[in-house]
Design brief:
about 75% helix, mainly alpha, about 0% strand
Length: about 350
């Protein structure tokens, strides 16, 4: 649903007559809403159980239609603020559900659930591209997708795990060195993901001289390999341990981006982004999973690490743009390689505890 909206950004921009600057300011609404909602929802999920928050999914589905009703940049910003807040609430609740289900099942599932997100993002983006090509109005397209998702959600909500909340659970996760390290890993990983989402197409166009049809292939290869990598992430972590898996993945991500930057040819750059997606696949889910063991309830730890991670996703693209303005895009993306190495260095803080960490 979220990627369906992003696929229609160009059409909505054209309908509203927004320039790049006005659109950029309006798009800040979604991440700001997400960052504001997640700590609050973490506390609610800890005290009342995540099922009660996931059941609010219809709010998110209705909210995603709002941007298509915007009349100017201000109303688009307001609509996206609601979208981001609803998405942030659902994100924490879904991760808490996944954590609870994994612990009840007694086997690793967390990475596979994040793989579903990656493939869902691909599906929504492809559906949005087809709708745009067919000239379907964004409002009609998003309303149809929301209705279909609502039907699916209505069928799935009864199967959610009944995790009991604790009315005495902490509202926020207690700070610790380990939690700070996990948050830093999430920051680095999601900043790297955000860099690919926003800048891979520009890099292929400006540095590798890719044709318009080839420019999106870097992101497509990245997303596909990330989804596939997440399917195998649980098995890899079970064999090698979460810390080694995250460290190896971070190093692989740095190497993949390094390949793209060193060659600056279309084929090798796309291959480099694919390797980067495979490497990053398990890093954020493993850090998030480890945070769920921090404290008496998983939701506050999940919220703390997720919020810092999404701050990286938010801050990364504009910081890379500023660095590219001062130097070059290739030089700016070298910074992302460095952050992947930082994540690898901190990966030893990701563990597989049998009991909650205090």
């Amino acid at each position: 649903m979220f990627s369906s909206w992003y696929a229609r950004v160009p059409a909505i921009q054209e309908d509203l007559g927004l320039g790049p600057g006005a659109l950029g300011v309006a798009l800040l609404g979604a991440p700001l809403g997400l960052l504001a909602a997640q700590p609050v929802v973490g506390a609610v999920a800890a005290r009342r159980g995540s099922r009660s928050v996931v059941a609010a999914a219809p709010v998110f589905l209705a909210a995603v239609v709002l941007p298509a009703l915007a009349t100017n940049a201000a109303t688009l910003f307001g609509a996206l603020l609601v979208v981001g807040a609803a998405n942030g609430a659902l994100d924490i609740a879904m991760n808490a559900q996944g954590f609870a289900v994994e612990r009840a099942a007694g086997r690793r599932l967390f990475n596979s659930l994040h793989a579903a997100f990656s493939f869902g993002a691909l599906t929504g983006a492809l559906g949005g591209a087809l709708a745009a090509e067919a000239g379907v109005d964004p409002l009609e397209h998003l309303a149809i997708v929301a209705a279909a998702a609502a039907l699916a959600g209505a069928a799935l909500v009864p199967g959610l795990f009944h995790d009991a909340g604790d009315p005495h659970a902490a509202r926020i996760a207690r700070p610790s060195r380990r939690l700070a390290a996990l948050a830093a890993i999430a920051f680095c990983a999601l900043l790297a993901e955000g860099a690919v989402f926003d800048w891979s197409g520009v890099y292929l166009t400006t540095e590798a001289a890719a044709a318009a049809g080839a420019a999106p292939l870097g992101l497509a290869a990245f997303s596909l390999c990330m989804g596939v990598g997440r399917l195998g992430g649980d098995a890899a972590a079970a064999r090698a341990g979460s810390a080694r898996t995250a460290a190896a993945g971070s190093l692989l991500a740095a190497g993949g981006l390094g390949l793209a930057l060193a060659t600056a040819t279309v084929g090798w750059s796309i291959a480099g982004f694919a390797v980067m997606g495979l490497g990053l696949a398990a890093v954020f889910p493993l850090a998030l999973r480890s945070a769920g063991f921090h404290g008496d309830a998983p939701a506050p730890g999940l919220a703390a690490v997720s919020t810092v991670g999404y701050a990286g996703f938010l801050l990364g693209p504009p910081l890379i743009g500023l660095a590219a303005e001062l130097a070059s895009l290739r030089a700016a993306l070298v910074i992302v390689c460095g952050l992947c190495l930082v994540a690898a260095a901190l990966a030893s803080q990701i563990d597989d505890p049998a009991e909650p960490l205090n």
